């Protein structure tokens, strides 16, 4: 029952994000936006789809239960959701699951982007690790954490290259910020 509730929330969240991303994609393309990283995007979709399937199957087939450490894990997951939506709202109409850059616009450097370059990817990495651990689905947690690291090792450089090449101020705004570790103030 608790697992079904969590899985339903995750699926509804992902579907609503895809609707938002599609709406933002149309808007960005109409503004002259260009998509980058098209070759790796299907792998991202596959990874996230297979993650949910693996999570579901591991919990159901192996009768996994809520972790006895749920009171520690759940706040981590809730905190990541706060950061996720802070990032999404900070990017506003520029948030997307694809890399779509409108040339010569200034980059968004507010919200969590004021402190780090990739808060949303950090959130995704934490979710992929801790959502399965919440239900003791350790094989899914380990496997997809590793696969996500591989995908991000391709995705992040592609995104950073596109931003550096096509925006007015990416290097100046983000050069002093770490990818995943918050930093305050410019060095």
From TrEMBL:
Sequence intervals crossing the membrane: 40-62, 69-87, 121-151
Keyword Calcium (UniProt): no
Keywords for this protein: Membrane, Transmembrane, Transmembrane helix
GO cellular component terms, A-Z: membrane
Keyword Transmembrane: yes
Signal sequence, start to end: none
MF term (GO), any: protein C-terminal S-isoprenylcysteine carboxyl O-methyltransferase activity
Membrane topology recorded in Swiss-Prot or TrEMBL: Multi-pass membrane protein
Subcellular location field: Membrane
Name the UniProt record assigns to this protein: Isoprenylcysteine carboxyl methyltransferase
Source organism of this protein record: Metabacillus indicus
Lineage summary: Bacteria, Bacillati, Bacillota, Bacilli, Bacillales
């Amino acid at each position: 029952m608790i697992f079904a509730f969590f899985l339903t929330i995750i699926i509804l969240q992902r579907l609503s994000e895809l609707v938002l991303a599609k709406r933002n994609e149309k808007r960005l393309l109409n503004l002259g936006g260009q998509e980058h990283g098209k070759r790796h995007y299907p792998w991202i979709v596959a990874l996230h789809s297979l993650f949910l399937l693996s999570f579901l199957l591991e919990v159901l087939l192996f009768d996994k239960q809520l972790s006895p450490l749920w009171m520690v894990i759940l706040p981590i997951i809730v905190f990541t959701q706060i950061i996720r939506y802070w990032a999404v709202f900070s990017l506003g109409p520029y948030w997307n699951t694809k890399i779509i850059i409108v040339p010569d616009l200034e980059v968004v450097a507010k919200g969590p982007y004021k402190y780090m370059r990739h808060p949303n990817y950090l959130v995704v990495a934490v979710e992929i690790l801790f959502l399965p651990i919440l239900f003791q689905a350790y094989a899914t947690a380990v496997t997809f954490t590793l696969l996500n690291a591989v995908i991000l090792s391709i995705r992040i450089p592609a995104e950073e290259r596109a931003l550096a090449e096509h925006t007015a101020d990416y290097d100046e705004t983000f050069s002093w910020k770490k990818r995943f570790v918050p930093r305050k103030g410019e060095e």
